[in-house]
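ARCHIVE CARD
Drawer: 12
Card no.: 0347
Subject: one protein chain, sequence and derived structure
Cross-reference: see card 0346
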Amino acid sequence: MNMQFSGAQAAPEIRHDWTSDEARALYELPFNDLLLKAQLVHRAMFDPNMIQRSQLLSIKTGGCPEDCGYCSQSAHHKTGLKASKLIEVERVLAEARKAREAGSTRYCMGAAWRSPKERDMESIVAMVEGVKALGMETCMTLGMLSVQDTLRLKDAGLDYYNHNIDTSERHYEKVITTRTFADRLETLAHVREAGIKVCCGGIVGMGEEKIDRVDMLVTLANLPEHPESVPVNLLIPVEGTPLENEGHIDPIDFVRTIALARILMPASDVRLSAGRTQMSAEMQALCFFAGANSIFAGETLLTKDNPGEDQDATLFRRLGLKSQLPGCERRHAESV
């Protein structure tokens, strides 16, 4: 079998009718069989040695009225994090320039809100327009969106909107009570209808069962269109939150989750997001083999530490991986 990056593998079928039983059977395959299947899907769609790098900035920290059990920024939890105001547009653009110079091609901006307020939309629009002018892709995560706000972001040129479903519908109410699973899906529908690309994934290690990880991915794979970007986060337990004693997941189970995401959503970017500081180089290498092809770069993710540029450069060098360059096409043309 020719295992070189040549596009020789047939493009896998893009499906939206996965059953939980089918997906669970894949998840439970012998580990080597699962990873081989995921790697072949990955090679059919992408350059297997190229990684897209995004960088994330908290543009408004703390004081969020939602009660997400994992979040240090919730006003419901006593984590010691002070609420801040929305930061200045020029500061955002200065940080975006640094991220671009460090090799990131997408800049993600996150605010701890239930939903954006009208008074903040002018600054939000200016941030999107400014980052776009730097030649970077733009992504925002601002909580729930109205149709009107979604259209304003689209007009500003927003490329991606991040709104994670976090976990399965069954497990969801054990993590969040201030908004429903259906609320999340409604915002995703607004984003998709406006023509903005969807960034949507979840968090593992929140006390969920195996079937919850499977069903979370099935929900995403059965959307009318797959999310273009699927971040998979490993819970970073935060003292003072309801989930401060969670975060325990077998590394092999985490890799299985990455592999299943790749198989169910062949053309999506699968991103290693929060929790990489808790992963060994070997665990990350297995994730890349299982189909992860995107990371969050930089030293911080919103309020938590992330591996710095030196660590990522060393890991990429050891694994023979290369960073995506601006304008570089990673997908095979026949797969798009």
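Annotation on reverse: The radius of gyration is 19 Å. The chain has eleven helices and twelve strands.
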